[in-house]
Amino acid sequence: MYVWRPIQDVIQTDAAINPGNSGGPLLDSTGSLIGINTAIYSPSGASSGVGFSIPVDTVSGIVDQIIKFGKVTRPVLGISFAPEQAVEQLGVTGVLVLDAPPEGPAGKAGPC
């Protein structure tokens, strides 16, 4: 099942983006890098449509992580939670936390 999610924190461009230049640079009129081409919305399926690029500031942060850690690191809450269907069956509103190990971020933060 596809879940629609809005695209956020990107630059919208009318530059053609296709498999050959996805991942390539988005330059301003002076030749400065402003983003990395990443996606296109094209109702026709062609390379014309609305293009989206990741801003260079976002890319810089990711590159720094790859250089430092050898991969992109993601934040972790340090909890395990019940599946959505189980929560609905129990009539719980929100997230049902099953475990928060004391050595994890949530455990170290303590109860809310």
Automatic annotation (TrEMBL):
<dbReference type="GO" id="GO:0004252">
    <property type="term" value="F:serine-type endopeptidase activity"/>
</dbReference>
<dbReference type="InterPro" id="IPR001940">
    <property type="entry name" value="Peptidase_S1C"/>
</dbReference>
<keyword id="KW-0378">Hydrolase</keyword>
<dbReference type="InterPro" id="IPR001254">
    <property type="entry name" value="Trypsin_dom"/>
</dbReference>
<dbReference type="Pfam" id="PF00089">
    <property type="entry name" value="Trypsin"/>
</dbReference>
<keyword id="KW-0645">Protease</keyword>
<feature type="domain" description="Peptidase S1">
    <location>
        <begin position="8"/>
        <end position="59"/>
    </location>
</feature>
<protein>
    <recommendedName>
        <fullName>Peptidase S1 domain-containing protein</fullName>
    </recommendedName>
</protein>
<dbReference type="GO" id="GO:0006508">
    <property type="term" value="P:proteolysis"/>
</dbReference>
<comment type="similarity">
    <text>Belongs to the peptidase S1C family.</text>
</comment>
<dbReference type="InterPro" id="IPR051201">
    <property type="entry name" value="Chloro_Bact_Ser_Proteases"/>
</dbReference>
<dbReference type="InterPro" id="IPR009003">
    <property type="entry name" value="Peptidase_S1_PA"/>
</dbReference>
<dbReference type="InterPro" id="IPR036034">
    <property type="entry name" value="PDZ_sf"/>
</dbReference>
